[in-house]
Amino acid sequence: MKFGGINVQEELIKKIRRKTACIAVVGLGRVGLPVAAVLADIGYRVIGVDIRKEVVKAISSLKIRTKEPGLDELIKKVIETGKLKTTTNDLEAVKAADIAIICVQTPLAENIEPNLIYLRMACEAIAKGLSKGKLVTVESTVPPGTTKNLVARILEESGLKCGKDFWLAYCPERITSGKIIQEFIKNVRIVGGFNKESANIAAELLKVVTKGGVIITDCMSAEIAKLAENAFRDANIAFANELALICERVGADVVEVIKIAKTHPRVSIHKPGCGVGGPCLAKDSRLLSYSAKEKGLLPKIIRFSRELNDHMPEHTVELLARALKEAGKHVKNSKIAIFGVAYKGQVDDASNSPAEVIIRKLIGLGARVIVYDPYCKENFGVEKAPNITKAVRGKDCVVIVTDHKPFEDLNLEGIKALMNEKPVIIDGRRIIDATEAKKQGFTYFGIGYGA
Ligand code: SAJ
Fold it and tell me: How far is the CA of 281 from the centre of ligand 1 (A)?
C-alpha cells in the first residue's frame, strides 16, 4: 500500500524492527500496565492511556504498587528513562502513535452478558485519532466475532478502510498473575489478523516481544482459542473436583489418585480445591457459553464444569460443618480463621475468590470469622489478623483457602497450642500433611480426602 510514494506497510515494519515505533497502550490495568512497561523496556516509545486520572498520576509519579514480581522496578526504569509516558488524553496518544494496543477490561454484566462498554469507548477514541498506515491490536478477552463485528466497524467510522488503510489484529494476552513479566517474554503469542497484511504486521511486533514464537491465524479462531484455553482449564479443574467428591464418598485420597493417574503418558489432571477464582477462568467459560447460546447451542461440559466449580466453596463449608460436629462443636458461634483471601497463591488479588463465598456463608451460619493473608489486602468485611499467631489464637478451626507458600510449612504444633480444645483444620488446597495434622491432634478434613 503506497501513500504519496511511500509504502506505509514497509515503513511501519521498519519502525517496529528498529524499535522506533510509538505505541499507545489503551487501558493500564492488570494487562495493559505490564504490556506498556515491557514494550518501553524493549525500547519503544510508549504512551500509556487510562481514563482513571489517579492511575495515570500514580504511574507517572512512581507511586503505583503492583505486587507483581519485577513490575514496579520495570515501571520505575521506563518512567525514569522517559520511554513510558502516561496520559488520560486518548485522542492525543493515538494521534501520536503508530500502533494502538487495546487492553481494557471486558467484564460480565449482572445478567452474565459481556459488557463491552470499555472496549467500545476505547475503539471510539482510537477511531478519532486514526490515520492511514497505523496498526491496532486487541489484547482484551472478547466474545467470538468482536474484532470484526465491533472493533473494525467502530474504527471504520474514521472513514478509513480496515485491512487496507489501517491494520487490525486480535492478539490475546496469555499471562498469569505472579509471572506476568516472564510470561510476556516467553509465551507463544497468537495473532488473529483481520486480513493477511494485518496479521503479518502485528506478528512483526510480537516477534520482537516474545521468544516463545508467534502463531498466525484469523480473528475468530484467535478469539475462540483464547476462551477455549481458560474454559479447558476450568473443565479440567472441575474434573479434578468431581474426582475429589467421589474420593470423599468412597473413601480414597484424591491427591494419591491423581498422582497415580498422571503417570500415564496421556493423562493430565489439574488440582481439586475449594473453588476457582480470579479474573479469567469463570468469566471466559461463561463468555464461551454465552456465545454458543446466542447461536442456539447450549454447551454441556463448559456449563456443568462452571456449576461444579461454583459449588466447591459451599462444599468446603459443608466439610467444615461435618468436621466441627466430629469435634463436638457447631458452626454457630464457632471461631474460624480463614487462611488466604487471594484467589490463588502468591498474588495480591482477591477477585472472585472462593474466600468471599466461604466467609459469607459462615457468617450466615453464625460463625465468627477472621482472615489472615500475607499477600493480599482484602478482608471481605471481617477482621484481618496481622500474623498467624493472632489469627489462630482462641479459634476452633483454620480453613486453608489459598495455596500461599507459607501455609505449606505451618508449625502445626505451635498453632494447636494457641487454638481452642479439639481444633479443626479444613484443607481447601490439600497443602497440609494430613497424617501430621492428625498426629498433632487436629480433626483434619480436606477436599477429596476420604481416606
Ligand atoms: N485452580 C485450581 N486448580 C488448579 C489450578 C487452578 O483450583 O489446578 C484455581 C486457582 O486456585 C484459582 C483459579 O483456579 O482460584 C484460577 O487459577 P489460574 O492459575 O488459572 O490463574 P489465572 O486466572 O490467573 O490465569 C489464567 C491462565 N490461563 C491458563 O492457564 C489457561 C493464564 O494463562 C491466562 O492468561 C489468564 O487466565 C487470563 O488472563 O486469561
Answer: 6
